[in-house]
Structure formats: C-alpha cells, structure tokens
Amino acid sequence: MARVLIIEDSSADVDLLRYAFHDAGLDEVELEIIPNGLEAIHRFHDFADRIAEPPDLVLLDLNLPEVSGVEILREIRKRGALEGTPIVVLSSSVELRDEIEALGVVRFVPKPRNYHDLVDALSELGPLILARTP
Predict the structure, then answer these.
(1) Sign of CA dihedral 1, 112, 88, 10
(2) What total of structural domains would you count in the chain?
(3) CATH value at residue 91
(4) Residues 47, 54 contacting (CB under 8 angstroms)
(5) Could you tell me which of 15, 102, 96 has the C-alpha nearest to residue 87?
(6) Cys bridge to 86: 27, 43, 106, 113, which one at CB 3.0-4.6 A?
(7) What digits encode the pLDDT tens for the residues 96-127?
(8) Is residue 87 pLDDT above 80, yes or no?
C-alpha cells in the first residue's frame, strides 16, 4: 500500500485532503499526518537514521508552526533524509516557488481555490504516488 506523509497544521485542510484522496480514486493510500514543523523534523531524523521506513510521497505545507516548510526542506536535504522520495509542496505561498523548487521538490502545487481543483491536483499526482509501491 502506498504511503503519503502530509505535513499540514490546518485540521480543516487535512480533512479536505482526506476527502480529496478518496474522490481522486486514491482510497488505498495510507495517510500519515504531521501537524507541525518540529514534529516533522524529528520524523525526518527517523527516516535518515533508518529507524522508520520513508513514505512514498510527502505533501508539505510551507506555513507551519514552530519550523517552516522551507526550513524542513533544507533539513531534509542536509541530512539526506528521504533520498529519492518525491516531495510536493502544496501551499498558498507562491512567492517562494523558485526557492522551493531549487530545494528539489518534484512539484509545487498552489493551494487550490476550490475542492475540485484539489481533487484534480491529487489525481495528477496519483501515478507518482502509486508508481513507488511494489
């Protein structure tokens, strides 16, 4: 089963993502939610130290409490955590797009303005998610 790590502090956005995964036909994807940047940093240390199995995809919000998404990306690259794991930024902070893409994300998806745009974005990511599972 494909596993997606969602780093998002808004419980409303997490709920929308859960529904959108379903509506995008991605019911078989296991979702792990991390609600803040500090917890995400600790989780990435587990991946880098091989304590935990890395996910098949990371969806990362940039505007997080405690540690920003940009700092998280820098930490991931510095420690070599998630080597080969696609990272997709889903954020309303489009002004940071160039900096984020330079940190090696596979895709920057502006937070959709409506639910149908979110479902469409996840549908497009479906093959990327499912291609990583054996």
Answers:
(1) negative
(2) 1
(3) 3.40.50.2300
(4) yes
(5) 102
(6) 106
(7) 888 888 888 888 887 767 888 888 888 888 88
(8) yes
